[in-house]
Every structure is written in structure tokens, then in C-alpha cells.
């Protein structure tokens, strides 16, 4: 099918002269699960803005679905979740925020109502739908913002730290929603613990805004030198077994670590 997003020699420089993204060439294939990781200040959030068509690059191009470099022409196919949920919650009630995207795209009322109800149930928003967004807690806002993006069923999700402010219970629900998404998912995060649960490929952004690595989850997340040099820490499960097991055997998830420990106890 080809890339749904293809960036070529992408650079973005802010007005103060700071270069946040530097000469990035990157292709995201249809149906891929990709994690873009980098330390705070590496430029990964700026890269999300540029790939999502919310910020114009200073140089280079981004092509969408092999069709166009105009993000507005495919806006209904791109679901972009920024780090600050307040960017998405601007209506009188949470329900109106969740209904906004489907209404803009002309989705039938029946379909929209069904999607809003399902997302409200999945993300614990059912009792909050008539509440003003400003009265939500940080975690509730995070869940409502994600629901507002998922409500219009975009082909591509570009998610900046969707697990950030939520507790463990809803973190697992969000992980399931993300992994069950039928389209393409690109996760932007400085924390690697959730990456093995949602991604099959990892792109590392260095502290100078360049892509310094692009490979499988195992190859990247077990490369301690690579991660340390770029201000990142391997997942906790990798750190727990590092120096004891070979890289090919290091557990990447809690479930894999548990299985390994149980096997060792026998």
C-alpha cells in the first residue's frame, strides 16, 4: 500500500533560531505501530506537529497517503493528540467535545452516538459527558481528549504521551484502544516502558533533533548504549535482567518478565 506518511529531509526551525527537527527522512507504512522516542527537548513533539500538518516545516516535505503534501486535504484521516488535553476541550460539555469531530465530518448521528457511547464506556467518561471540561481532573481531561480524537475514526493516530496523566487502570484501557485501532499508530513518548506493548518499530530522535536509530522494538530497547547516549532509559523489565540474560532473551514487558521469573523458579 505504501507509506501513509512520508517525510523527506524535514527540518523545522523556530523563530528564535532553535532547530527542533533536523534533516529527518522517515516513512510510516499503512497499519504500522511505530514509537517515536526521545528525551525531553529532543524535538519529538515538534516532529509530531510537523507530521500532523499542524506546523509548516522550514525545509523538506511531508506526503500523505502517497497523494498530497497538503495536510488539510486529508485532515479527516489524521487523528493528532497533543500533549495538552486542553487543546481539544473547548465546548460547553464533554459530550459536545466528543461529538465535534464526527459532526464536522458529516458522520451520521446514529453512528456518532454509537461511537461516543462506546468510547465513554471504555474510558470511564459516561458519568462525565454532561460536565464542563474545565471541571475535569487532569486524568479525566486526558481520557476525554483521546476520546475526541478516536471519535471520528481516523486512519492514522499521532499520539503524544497518551498514557501521561492516567492511572494504571485506564492506562491499560488506553493501550487496548490503541493496539486495537485498525489503522496506523504513531506514539511519541520519552518513556519506554509502554513502548513494547503498543509498537513493533522504534524511531529514536537524538538530542539534536535528528533520527539516530530506526529498528525493531527488541533491537532498539535492548541497546543500552544507544539509549543512554540519547538521554533515554531502557524499560524497567530490561534493566532488571540486563547483565543476566543475552539481549535476545531480555523480557520487554511485565508479562514476559513474569513468565521468565516463574520459569526460573521451577
Automatic annotation (TrEMBL):
- Name the InterPro entries on file: AAA+_ATPase (IPR003593), ABC_transporter-like_ATP-bd (IPR003439), ABC_transporter-like_CS (IPR017871), ABC_transpr_CbiO/EcfA_su (IPR015856), ECF_ABC_transporter_ATP-bd (IPR050095), P-loop_NTPase (IPR027417)
Which SMART domains does the record match to this protein?
AAA
CDD domains (UniProt xref)? ABC_cobalt_CbiO_domain1
Q: Where in the cell is it found?
A: Cell membrane
Record domain ABC transporter: where: 5-233
What protein family is recorded?
Answer: Belongs to the ABC transporter superfamily.
Protein name (record):
Putative cobalt ABC transporter ATP-binding protein
Lineage of origin: Archaea, Methanobacteriati, Methanobacteriota, Stenosarchaea group, Halobacteria
